[in-house]
Amino acid sequence: MKKTIFILATLLGTTGMSEAVAQDTKDILPGVSVENFNMNRNGKYLTVTMDIDLSELDVNSNRAVLLTPRLANGTDSIDLPSVGIYGRRRYYYYIRNGISTISGETEKSFKASDKPGQLEYDNHIPYENWMDGATLKFHRSDWGCCQEILAEYEGLLGRHREVFFPELVFVQPKAEVLKSRSLSGSAYIDFPVNRTVIYPDYRRNTVELGKIQATIDSVRSDKDVTITSVWLKGFASPESPYKHNTDLAIGRTAALKKHIGQLYHFADSVIRTDYEPEDWAGLRRYVEQSDMTHCSEILAMIDSDMEPDAKEAKIKRTYPDEYRFMLKKFYPALRHTDYRIDYTIRKFSDVEEIKRIMEERPQKLSLNEFYLVAGKYEPGTDEFTDVFETAVRMFPNDEVANLNAANAAIRRDDFAAARRYLNKAGDSAEAVYARGALAVREDDIDTARRYLTKAKEMGLEKAALTLKELDERQK
Questions:
Q1: CATH 1.25.40.10 fits domain 168-175+347-474
Q2: Are 45 and 16 in contact (CB under 8 A)?
Q3: 0.70 cut: is pTM over it?
Q4: What is the band of 25 on the pLDDT scale with cuts at 50, 70, 90?
Q5: Tell me, what DSSP letter sits at residue 124?
């Protein structure tokens, strides 16, 4: 099967990490110390938090001190909002000259006599790619009269490094040529002894016939659905001669076909029938699940090559008590009709319509249709994740559905869910790669290398690129 894939970019909405501060923050600047420093990527923003201790900072009456966190990487840099401490005369000088702060509106300013001993600093800025690897320094500038900078100091707070997030490979499911589905069940229609005529009001027939009708109605009333066949298979229990049971199974199945045909006016070719004179497989299941005496011996007789009538007679003769129990408890359930409604669903291409159907009746969608909707959401969002989780609920054993759901789980760091989905994702190159990506996120580098190397050997180019990037980050 030819696969279409898309790659989820490394840094979309990831959470970053910061290296430890480079020096003792207690002495980062003259008169200023910092504690509880933290710099982290949070979605689209880089957040900087710290507790600034200003208790030892002395500011001369004719001076101002400006404290500015400055993020830089090569030629790129940005100043975060400053903290300004103004001596009494300098404070009123700025007021008289219409200057509220030195650095602008975002500055948090205090008159020296009113400055707090401890200041909680909390700020976030839009994240840009150059910030990966950038250093954050704390800059102090002392200002005198005439806007003159008298002294400057600088201390290193820390460095921001993005957590390595391997690019994820989502696979586009193959589009279904025909969206064929089916609904199935069993009904226990009661017939008078040795009769093949259906009486709708007889015993529980109203309920049991209603089960079949409800199944048909659930799809027949849907304008997007076309019923292609109604399949019926009748079973009898083994207590009568096999030839007689054959006639009963055939006749009772034909009676049910006629009953459904009269209700829905299906073409004769739509309703197909089959029969099994005696449901020995069903009897075996009931015996195996029971705690009857001589259970294993009866199972051996059921599994034997004896003719059905001889088999039933031997069980009855050898274990009369157990036979009477089975006749009363098990045999009625063996007289049943299995049914299956086969139908097709039209294809959907309009994304907005697919979104609506996903909310109302997701079972009508194909995996490829789910994939089309996912492409309209930003990776990592709740909407994006919900599409793939809904898809895997509708197709719980499909390998591509499980692979894409696993990738969505890795994307939001739900590693337990990712492992659960990957257990059913098969052994394609993309699935092997996803196991490597999960190992990277769990910081199991040896396991990650093993899976990524295998995916590379299987021909997945992205695996080679990820291995190379992993090697570079491990230097």
A1: yes
A2: no
A3: no
A4: low
A5: E
